[in-house]
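G., the chain you wanted modeled:
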Amino acid sequence: MNVAQADTQPTAAAIISQATQQQWRVVDADNIIKITLPTGAAYIELNPQLAPKHTQNIKQLAREGFYKDLNVYRFVEGFVAQGGDESGKKPVKSAVKAIPAEFYLTTPSPVNITELDHSDGYAAITGFLNGFAVAQNDAQTQTWQVHCNGIFAMARDNDINSGGTEFYVTIGHGPRYLDRNITVFGRVLEGMEHFNRLSRTANTGAAFNPITDLQVLADISKQDNSQFKVMRTDSAAFLALIKARKNRSEAWFVETPNYVDVCGMPIPTKRVSDLES
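Predicted structure as tokens:
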């Protein structure tokens, strides 16, 4: 891209601010979980299209109060924060402790996504589907959510079907080598700072990164009426945003690589104000 082109291309900020209401979608509160941590609440959108069983199970766990007063017990700097029942002994009621892996969705016909125009070494095709960063096989008949910063996934043991209660959030550079090895089924909409501010080591006599509660947002609407909008990843605005991220036109940038990878493409998300709702 030459200087003249850079001068005429709109910035990412301008594209986001000028996107029409039709180019945003309101996230269904029934697919948002709220995790209350020591420094505040994080809101996570679940991905029922790619992982319906995991989505349903964690909502059931939330509704039976499974995570109340548990903790985020594993923290690996620049990698992951993992929470749930470290002991593995807490019983469940109507939910289940282990569910079949949903590493990818298999479909009889191709699934159309907003594609990036390159492969990335980990998948034949990468792009975006319903507000999530995803990848696919050549035939587009296998689709999975990829490990970018801020994804929500289910930890497991060696048995691929052993995951069910122990969730994690990635807090550093996306560990893409985990793709299709673990079920990824959501992403943080708001509140990443609360995962980043968790204690790294336990202090004697103090609760270690306690989880006050994990709740389905739709269930607590009288106490918390938070709403979120995500830019439609199949919209013209998002296509323009991909172009703007490949070649940044802001005056600060010297190099324009004409490239952005799937985890380097932020998906615009905003809290809905009273004026918008």
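Residues 146 and 179 are 6 Å apart (CA to CA).

Shout if anything looks off.
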